[in-house]
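Suppose a colleague, Dr. K., hands you the sequence of a protein chain of 553 amino acids and asks what its three-dimensional shape might be. Before reaching for any lab equipment, you can write down a predicted structure in token form. Begin with the sequence itself:
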Amino acid sequence: MSQAERGHTSSRCGSPPLDAQIVSVNVDEISNLEYIEEDCNGNSPKPHILEVTDGIRSGESELQCNVEILHPKTLVCFSDWCLDGEKFCWRIWMTIGYLLAFGLSLSLIVLWAYVLFPFQKPRAGFWENWIFNFVAHPVANYIVARAPMGWFMRQIMWGLQSARSLRDEQRQKITKRLQRSLRWVPLVDSLWCATEHSIFAGFHIFPIPFATVLSCTPAASVSMVVFYMVLPSEVRTLPNTLDSLKFTMCTWMGYLTGFIAMLFYTAFFSTATTEVQLAMSCVVAFVEWFVMKIVFGLGKRWFVPEHLMREMRTAMRLPVIIFKSMVLSEAKGLLVIASMILPEVIAVFSSFVMVVIDLTSESALRLAHLRSWRQLVRGVHGLFHNLRALRKRLAEIHGNCQQITLQEFRDARWPAQEIHLLNEVSSSLSTIVMLEVCEVMAPAIFVSLLLCLRSNTFLAQNELHFMGLAEANFQESLIRNGYSLLLEAGMLLATDLFSRRTIGLSFMSVLRSVLQCDFSFWLSTLSTSYVAWLTVLVRHTGHDMKFEFLWLP
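The predicted structure, expressed as tokens, is then:
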């Protein structure tokens, strides 16, 4: 378990997510785990759970710890193994319920921001579009500004819990203050944009040309600065706070780079030939990989915990996934469609493989220093040996849990290595789960939005105000996004089967635990991507998708 995860720790299964509370834990007991945990600088040694001799480390001589320091997601996931744990059918229904609630909440946020309120045509003027300027756009800016603050706060919690100079009461007080700031500081973004648009309107400029560049992005940056300024002094003086701010801003810039790349991608994709479309998809995949390589290289330099960087990697992939669902109907040929969908499928599979390699740490070390084919064969052999040992160890934990009740599970003292292993497995898989969820949600949300805008109800009033959506091939968009949805759902089930076969853990159980414990964090992250996507498309924000720049003198 990393120090960042200790910031999420709760003594109750199914407790609120990280950005909702911090529960007191025994810091002295946690500090005794330093030999297997991340130090205060963020250095994270691998969990030594496996040995070459028999593949399993004995727990008899290990430090015994209370199960309360398990991550809440881990408690939700693994407590089902107990004698009185929830029944299988109930867990399935709970997973479906959380997934539907997540999708419905995400849809309502997207519709509420830009579809529910009727807009006038942009050429009608600034004051005639008061609903957009003073209601819809400020709401959208609030949603967008809250996400990077949530990312920053998630890192602050990690530093907060690793600060041994703070008492538990201080941590709880600081956390409540951070929660209040996270609710009101995004309003700075809304006020900034409303004021800036009003000033431009005074000079008879409406809409603002490329408002996301001239208005939205500066407003989000200013609100981040305000959020940093209102941090308690105890937080600002922590050694990792400034580095966390740097990493968050770099992640935000990489996130916006993805939007810029996809803006050009969608602007020229429909008119390009088959070969050019294929090349564009490859270029986008390369840009996505290159930006993330830079951002996460900086993250390692600033000692950001690995599991937090995995969360940011998932967040940065969202714009690409969302924009691709929009132009899927314009793809010319099966090869182009495959080039748009398969990279995301490969990303999920490769992420899962890398998690397995990370968990079998000795194999990862050997695979990183290969010098010959013989070493490669030995490394792969060691990987499978340790993988079998990992599965065996989890099976042993599973068997032990099946013999005790949930209360006995919570009262027990477990070897530190086992607690570390369970937390590593839960933390590593959670980001892959949410990447899968986003890939399932992207075509579903796009189809839902398209149906609303093409309906005969009041929701259809804004259809002509969205570039690309009004011109979209309705029937073809439904068919291809339907196929994409089925493919991604099938991929989710295939990943679940692969997870069961490799490490003996159900992917669906991890999905339920993530949605139960981190619902608000991931809802904020995904809704930001969808709202920012529609902000780019709505004509009232002055984006010229043809890039003719007719507004220049």
